[in-house]
Amino acid sequence: MIFQGRCISSGKATGEVIKLEEPLSFLGGVEGSTGDLKVRDGNVAGKILVFPKGKGSTVGSYVMYDLMVHGKEPKAVINEAAETIVATGAVISSIPMIDQIPSVRIFEDGDIVTVDATAGTVEIKDLVYKEVVSSVVSRDAKCILEKRKATSRSFPGLWSLVAGKIEEGETPVEAARREILEETSVKVGEPLGSMDPLYVREGNVLFKVYPFHFDAGDQEVSLNDENERYVWASLDDAKKLETLTDTILVMSTFL
Amino acid sequence: MDLTREEEAILNGEQGEGRQKAMELVTALGKIYGADSLIDITSAHLSGASYKTIGDGGLKYLEDLVGGGATVSVPSTLNPVGMDRNRWKEMHISEHFAKKQNRIIDLYGQMGIKTTCTCTPYVGPNVPSMGDHVAWSESSALSFVNSYIGARTNREGGPGALAAAILGKTANYGLHLDEKRKPTVVIDANIDGSVFSYSLLGQAVGMAIGSGVPYFRNIHPEVEEAKALCAAMAASGSIALYHVEGVTPEAGNFDVSDLEVIHIGKKELDNAYDKLNMVDDVQLISIGCPHLTEKEMHQIAAFLKGKEKRNKDIEIWFCTSAEIRERCAEDVKIMEKFGPVLADTCMVVAPIEGTFERTGSNSAKAGNYLPTLCSQKAMCRDIAALMELVL
């Protein structure tokens, strides 16, 4: 699977991903002479370093140079949004770098990726890509949460919004309406809201998730056999359950 | 970004590796900030000069640049370094540090940069004109030339400004554009007009708005007051440009009638003061952040004349440029009875953390950075109040 980003510092590299979920300050975050990370276990030397963006002291650029001098630099850097410190460090240290990838969430530690920074692309090897919808189907300030079966192929046993795969030829909204009807027998109209897609990884599968919000009206809910059971949950109720990634984020956006 | 044929050639390495790397950096930064093209600059001022801040990584970077034959193509000056070049022993600096620091100064010199190591080059060796495009780092100095002189620069980082100096060009975005120089908020200020009140005003405004382009009413800063205001707002916030009604050169260009008005008075200044004062006693008093001007040197000497330093436990440093120290020889004689008048350096970029734990200054900028960059508990008072501690 190839993703298109933007070239910040040219070059090409293939290697194994090490990923940080939070913005990184190279000063204080990485040991310049060894490549050891101080913000989590691991070492950046020879890796493809993925993190959302840089932060902190401008001296961070020189820490990246120090890594290069010691042969401990990452093979490439991938950011969601480049800023001055990391971009400067990458360019002066000749480390290939791209930004404007959809999300750091498309990567997991250990992924083998090829960065063609000059072209602005990154290819993740052996990645299965699926587009799905996930809907808040609400009544008053509550929405339907379904408990996935223990035998479910993806995210077994977790509580989920009304979700499913987008079939070929379907728009995301059409898929959302169909899934809601199939799984809950509720017939919904136009969405009350939508969000930018979210990315969720499970093993080698990457889900691109289109969130929607629909009104259930006073229709009765009747589950098909895909899920074990359902509840009408408020945001506070949902926080007490073991929910699928981003369920709380999507509910708090729409409810 | 639209590059000229010559710029493309530099990017392709046709003028050597040093200029190629510089062009890669300037264009990468331009891309991030949406620049459409490069523009010629008339001067540069570079931060990243203290061994304490740039470390061995920065030193090696400079070694490699010089090794690659890089030289600057516009007049360029350097920020303060980690020590007075001649009097570093009085600052409790180690031989090791001094050696590395001298090497850094030497490398900047080899690239053609004037190594007058000061954060106020605009009062001496590097004075832009109204409308000049320049590439300056050092947050207080670049705010001064933007605001008080009407030259145009973004908040450049050290390596970015150096790359721009090598090329004589920087990326055209941000404060180089008319559109981005418009005021974003009106500050109705009620202060007593002392230099220290400008420091607190800047601190309060930085705390209130964080970023943006403030437009001040009811203040009349001269160079020293503007210097304090710039430094404080760039440290407590990230403000790189402001206008002052009736004072700064671009202030008359804008209609501010629709802007939000923020009042800054006693309450806000008191809050700013509290934020900057963590302790009541200090081991070091350091004055000259940004570097003392000639006028300030005269004022301090006049204040200290005939007085005696009774408290020997507190050290005092006065920080200025070598040129001003030389010009103020009579003042220096008086001031030296209280502590060394240091050139090329200041307490923020010197490695004071090994020697001192509590430091006082009259600078809101120092008050912001002493805790974070120097592990100090900080005090911030006006010069007379600081001197009370030793008289």
Quick structural gist:
In chain A, a hairpin with a 2-residue loop joins strand 14 (198-202) and strand 15 (205-215). Chain A is α+β, with helices and mostly antiparallel strands and 255 residues long.
CATH architecture field of the largest domain in chain A: Alpha-Beta Complex
Using the CA coordinates, give the radius of gyration of chain B.
21 Å
The total domain count of chain A is 2
What proportion of the residues of chain A form beta strands (DSSP E)? 25-35%
Per CATH, the superfamily of the largest domain in chain B is Aconitase, domain 3
Poorly predicted runs of chain A are none
Approximate helicity band of chain B: 40-55%
- The counted number of beta strands of chain B is 15
User: What's the number of helices of chain A?
Assistant: 6
Largest sheet of chain A: 8 strands, mixed
Give the tags.
heterodimer; A: 255 residues; alpha+beta; Glucose Oxidase, domain 1; Nucleoside Triphosphate Pyrophosphohydrolase; 2 domains; 8-stranded mixed sheet; 6 helices; 19% helix; B: 391 residues; alpha/beta; Aconitase, domain 3; 3 domains; 5-stranded parallel sheet; 4-stranded parallel sheet; 15 strands
Write a structural description:
The complex is a heterodimer of chains A (255) and B (391). Chain A has six helices and 16 strands. By secondary structure, chain A is α+β, with helices and mostly antiparallel strands. Chain A has two domains: 123 residues, Phosphohistidine domain (Glucose Oxidase, domain 1, 3-Layer(bba) Sandwich), CATH 3.50.30.10; 127 residues, Nucleoside Triphosphate Pyrophosphohydrolase (Alpha-Beta Complex). In chain A, the strands form two sheets. Chain A has an eight-stranded mixed β-sheet. In chain A, strands 9, 10, 11, 12, 13, 14, 15 and 16 form an eight-stranded mixed β-sheet that branches. In chain A, α2 packs parallel to α3. The longest helix of chain A has 13 residues. Chain A is elongated and about 65 Å long. The two termini of chain A are 34 Å apart. Chain B has three domains: 174 residues, Aconitase, domain 3 (2-Layer Sandwich), CATH 3.30.499.10; 94 residues, no CATH class; 112 residues, Aconitase, domain 3 (2-Layer Sandwich). Chain B is built from 14 helices and 15 strands. The N and C termini of chain B lie far apart (60 Å). The mean pLDDT of chain B is 96. Chains A and B meet through β2, α2 and α3 of A and α2, α3 and α6 of B.
